[in-house]
Amino acid sequence: NWTTITSGATRTLPLYSVTATGQNFWTVSNDLTVTCTYNGSTWSTLRLGTGNEIFYGKYSAIVPKITTRNIFQMGVKDNTTAISPFYYSQNDGSSYNSESQFNSLNGGATNVEGLVVDPGRSTKVYAYGRLQDGSGAYHPFYHSDNHGDPGTWVTTQASFTSRPILTLSPKGNSASPPYNSQTIYAGAARGGNDAGLWRTRDAGANWAQVSTSTIRIDTQVNATAWNPINVPDIAYAGTFRGLYWSYNPNAADDEVLFYKRWPTGDIDTAVKRILIDPRFTHSSHNSANVFWVASNNMIYRCENGGTSPVTVNGNLPSGIVLNDIRSDPSDTTRIYIATDRGIYKSHLVVPPNLTSPANGATNILDCITSTEPLKFQWSTVGGATSYGFQLDDNSDFSSPLVNTTTSSNQYSHDSNLVCEIQYYWRVRSIDGFGNSPWSGSRSFTTSACNLPQLAAPTLVSPPNGSTGHEKCLTLRWNAVSGAIKYRVEVIGYKTTHVSDTSYWDCYSSNTWYNWKVKAINCNYANPFSETWSFKIRDYGITSLDSQKTQSQVDIEEIDIPSKFELKQNYPNPFNPLTIINYQLPIDNWVTLKVYDVLGREIATLIDEFQVSGFKSVKFDASKISSGIYFCRLTCGKFSDIKKIHVTK
Q1: For residues 160 and 207, is the Cβ–Cβ distance under 8 A?
Q2: Pairing assessment for the beta strands 466-469 and 532-536 based on DSSP bridges
Q3: How buried is 453 (Cβ within 10 angstroms: 0-12 exposed, 13-18 middle, 19+ buried)?
Q4: Euclidean distance between the first and final Cα of the chain, in Å?
Q5: CB count, 10 Å around CB of 290?
Q6: Residue 226: pLDDT band by 50, 70, 90 thresholds?
Q7: Which of 70, 206, 332, 453 is deepest in the core (most CB within 10 A)?
Q8: Lowest mean pLDDT across 32-46, 469-483, 546-560, 612-626
Q9: Whose CA is closest to 400, among 495, 306, 486?
Q10: In angstroms, rounded to a whole number, what is the distance separating the alpha carbons of residues 334 and 328?
């Protein structure tokens, strides 16, 4: 739900940009030399410059200081007037002064496309565009180490590109090394082979063009963004073709890989602006929603750069022109858009407060003593349409026992809880803008056990100490009388619970794994089995047998396929498990999804970067009905579909 906040303005302007903090907003028109300031109750307008100067506003920005703030209005001047394209206010927009360092000489055309604060150093500010200094030389990039105060702007490299810089994104603090980086991505306007993506690793002293197979050196890049809470980092770039992302933005210049995430196929739609969901601020949040404004005047949202975005225009008027999307640095629950019909705002839901059971509660009823479901409760969040709930016996929720959605502010768990175990639970809010971050987790411990211990399972396969296994294999053990399920621990890799006596998974090449199993009834203190080990065979260039002498070393041929291919699943028909094999001749981003006959997405099996080789994945259809489904493999420009048949 979007709400207009310009209905009380003295005039309606086509607005190009918006910046805000609390109840204060600053905007600039994209075709008039007018700025608008809103103080929470009334709007005021102010014309920049004097006389007949021609100035086109492009970008508004706020730079917080300790007790005050600087407000900036930037834009483009024509090539006939010697005025500044860069204005600043130190009295919340009541008056503006031009920045003399950016005054144009000799009637040269100058533009300032934007300004951004380094997220890792709040005093450092960057301005970008095509800026002319006092000598008449052009610079695409300036920086200030003092909040952008007058006279503090400097440039360190004059001409790394002849094209205007349209977007700039410092990395700042990050969950991945380097943690406080001086890395910055910039996008240049089209017009030659020095357009496209640029990057500096020393805060602007030296720049290099990032050459990728998907974003060409002559491509116009309109928007860039970092998602530094992910491990590893994710960087985004918006071009005339769509939204791209990179999982390795810190790699060498010729090794960075960007993949097109939207729109899919051969459709091209330009991206104007990108915004990382401001609610996601810590590495414990794992991933963040990303919003972008497209040239079709739609706002899109997806989680963590996914390939299935949804539109969030909501109640915005039909035919509206969208120019900017921004967050509020003082309120992470607010986002704003600048349009040809004024400014609109919307609210993002926050995580709920957990209420019951109390954190650290003990003697919670288990599967022996309970007579009714255990009820979990949390506060109602305004605007939330539903809530996500997770319950696990691991504090990292790596493989949650319960992962569900509920429309109310409570969840009743009626499955067995094991006695004398510490459990963890958490909740997040959901609305049309997607998921909020998870709440902090709470824990509780179930009551003491009164059952005799079950016997330890006997492991069956793979044999202890065996080597040369394929990447995907099944662990097996003998059944234990009285067990209701089994806890499988592949030590240092994964812990899970299963109801039968086998567990299938895939592992890394040339790696040893240790595993053990325990039977579970209501007594979690049952003993584990022995710990066995196995080793996955080496899929690399060479395979060295440590028991041979150097002269006896066998050299194994590289096991790389010659083409992309999606194999028919086996078995087919199946119930409920089947194996899907595919092959990659080169390293690539891989998506493998299952759809029903109406084209609705049923499951995402793979959505990650993978190295070349022969691959295998398991599909569990236990939660879907019988019928015909379609499995689609997408790797870059390659795509293939196989029909699969579920029978029950």
Answers
A1: yes
A2: parallel
A3: middle
A4: 43
A5: 27
A6: confident
A7: 70
A8: 546-560
A9: 495
A10: 6
The answer to whether 562 and 608 are in contact (CB under 8 A) is no
311 phi/psi in degrees, rounded to 5: -85, 145
pLDDT digits (tens, 9 = 90+) for 132-160: 665 666 678 888 889 889 888 887 665 67
> Strand (E) positions, 499-549?
502-506, 512-520, 532-536
3-class SS at 325?
Answer: strand
Rounded distance between C-alpha atoms, residue 347 and residue 39, angstroms: 19
Task: Kindly report the pTM of this predicted structure.
Answer: 0.70
For residue 275, what are the β-bridge partners?
A: 291
Give the list of residues 6+ apart from residue 478 with CB closer than 8 angstroms, or none. 457, 458, 460, 501
The residues near 584 (Cβ < 8 Å, ≥ 6 apart) are 561, 564, 590, 610, 611, 612, 613, 615, 635
As given in the structure block, the two tokens for residue 214 are 């998907």
Rounded-to-integer distance, Cα 197 and Cα 251, Å: 14
Write out the E strands in 529-611.
532-536, 565-566, 577-584, 588-595, 601-610
User: Rounded to an integer, what distance in angstroms lies between the CA atom of residue 648 and that of residue 626?
Assistant: 6
Please name the amino acid found at residue 498.
Answer: V
Identity at 511, one-letter amino acid code: T
State both tokens at 522: 């209501």
Calculate ∠ Cα 538-635-566, nearest 5°. Answer: 70
Dihedrals phi, psi of 253, to nearest 5 degrees: -55, -40
Sign of the C-alpha dihedral computed for residues 303, 308, 309 and 311 taken in this order: negative
